[in-house]
Amino acid sequence: MPADQNIASMGGTRLSLRWSRPALVLAGLTVLALASIVLFMTLGAKGSWSFVLTFRGKKLLSLLLVAYSVAVSTVLFQTVTNNRILTPSIMGFDALYVLVNTAIVFFLGVGALTAIDSQVQFLMQVLIMVGFSSVLFRWLFLGEERSLHLLVLVGIIFGILFRSLSQLMQRMLDPGAFNVLQDTMFASFATTDPTLLGVSGVIVAAVTLVGWRMMHSFDVLSLGRAHAINLGVDYKRTVAIILVLVAVLVSVSTALVGPVTFFGLLVATLAHSLVGNSKHRYVLPAAVLLGIVALVGGQTLLERLFAFDTALSIIIEFLGGVVFIILVLKRSAR
Amino acid sequence: MQAPHVPILVLAFVVTLALGSISLFVGVSDVSLPALLSGTANGRAVEVLLISRIPRTLALVLSGASMAIAGLVMQMVVRNRFVEPSTTGTSESAALGFLVVTLVAPGWPLMAKMAVSAVFALAGTALFLRILRAVPLRDVLLVPLVGIMLGGIIGALTAFIAYRANLMASLLAWTMGDFSGVIRGRYELLWIGLACCAAAYVAADRFTVAGMGKDFTTNLGLNHKRVMTLGLVIVSLVSAVVLVSVGSIPFLGLIVPNIVSLTVGDNMRRSVPWVAVGGAAMVLICDIAGRLIRFPYEIPISVVMGVTGAAIFLYLLLRTPRHAS
């Protein structure tokens, strides 16, 4: 269904002066996102503004980076796998990142973590993560044809396997090493990890640059493998590059706030249904803006109005689970 | 036809018995045969054996056997190979029920709390079946997928309530299966699991028939609904009992019946003893491994089971490409 729609809308250029639906959606979302940012920075502020602004500014920056990475990685992953249900976190990529981290401490010792500069170390982890996730992805997706349900189930079970393996290794570490690991790894929306802000920002900017130059091929890719090859896209190369981008973005977001299974699915699904077509130059910004509204707005609402601090991830998991079941049921009802 | 299996079953039983006796002697405190026989002045070895080791081993055998049987019954009733209490929202509902009753009536005896937890488990499973009925086209893999997600949603709800009530630590303890806290007086509820296993064995033929579908069951003169209800009650009771006593043990009810059915087939009357013995052996092995890997510390069984169970589940899923639909 999306394929026909795409071809149709790509062929005809629209010359109306009225705002199109995607443009309206983007404008509305921008306003909402800006409003949540302003509220996040100012609501309930007491004392010196310079302190409040720098303190909250760091948190805001991490939330923005997370919203951006999760939204972009999810949309791109769905484009590559050509479906709207799978996301990197459902396939266990977040858990894989945690596992890679734990394995480094487990096999190399705490010395490895404390001796190296935390930013260099982060870059190393990202590299290892890119390697492992590409192997996993290639094995699952580029081999024989598998049904979508099998892939999702296998992905979820892989996630459980990775999490259990990390737990097993963490239990086998001595408590001192475990504390070091926990400090570097387990962040949440309320307590983001500020040390990695700089390097994450640079990485995300680089990813964006690469992604920007490939923007035109994303739309073609979402038509499916056969169409994409037929239209002259170097399929294998493009998919490989996108996978690297996705793995890098997942590492960034997991390092900043820890694993969140359903956030990406929630944001990407909403973006697709709001925008109404599958052109990446609308869907990508819409997903990012939705991510900002959900994270920054949600965190403001919970922290300032309801005084829950770490509940945002629980709420996102709850809503995401409901959306997931609806999506799966709708798909199989068709 | 049944004959060739019996000697092997006896062998499996003996192996499980051997594992059980190993479990009696593994631990920090010195409980070895010489220590027991020498009858040292304080009799500490005997005390440890009676208060901690024997109850722990019994708890392992009972919960292993009953969880595996619960998985088998569930697979028959839902007619899907990949369901068990932790892939249908049953375990998560039991945890929710236990949390709610702990909040509302903290003074109730454990037995009553367990009963409430079982009722929640039953309701959660019923909800799962209700959702499944809304799916016209039933893919084999869709069923556990929906179940895991439903479990996730119920788990998020439970986590939220626990978070608001400052009970996150207790919730973690319930959901994480761990036998290290089992001592005399804290595992006896698990005997209910044995009763459930016996009930499953008695009603095995009915479940086998129910596994062939509603029309077939009705045609043979059985009340399909009643068989379903019996099965779900068994599953819910076992899940609640195990959860309340030792915490949840993931994947056990899924992998043991699947491995058994690969070798013995789908006649439930014949597979019940195999599944019970296999479940007990599996839990014994995982718990002994958890005690030995990081001696003298212990690794909870839910972690060990999570690794082995997930790996075996993946193997079962990816074994043959015939699932592609």
Main traits of this protein?
heterodimer; A: 334 residues; mainly alpha; ABC transporter involved in vitamin B12 uptake, BtuC; globular; B: 325 residues; 14 helices; 73% helix
Word description of this protein:
- The complex is a heterodimer of chains A (334) and B (325).
- By secondary structure, chain A is mainly α.
- Chain A has a single domain (53-333), classed as Orthogonal Bundle (ABC transporter involved in vitamin B12 uptake, BtuC).
- Chain A contains 14 helices and no strands.
- Chain A has helices spanning 2-11, 21-42, 49-81, 93-108, 110-115, 118-142, 148-172, 175-185, 197-221, 225-230, 235-257, 263-275, 280-306, 312-333.
- In chain A, helix 2 (21-42) runs parallel beside helix 13, helix 4 (93-108) packs across helix 6 (118-142) and helix 12 (263-275) packs across helix 13.
- Chain B is mainly α.
- Chain B starts with a helix and ends in a 7-residue tail after the last helix.
- Chain B has a single domain, classed as ABC transporter involved in vitamin B12 uptake, BtuC.
- The longest helix of chain B is centred in the N-terminal third of the chain and has 35 residues, at 44-78.
- The A-B interface holds A 144-147, 149-150, 152-154, 156-158, 160-161, 163-165, 167-168, 171-172, 261, 308, 310-311, 314-315, 317-318, 321-322, 324-325, 328-329, 332-333 and B 82, 131, 134-137, 139, 141-142, 144-146, 148-150, 152-153, 156-157, 159-160, 163-164, 250, 293-294, 297, 299-300, 303-304, 306-307, 310-311, 313-314, 317-318, 321, 323-325.
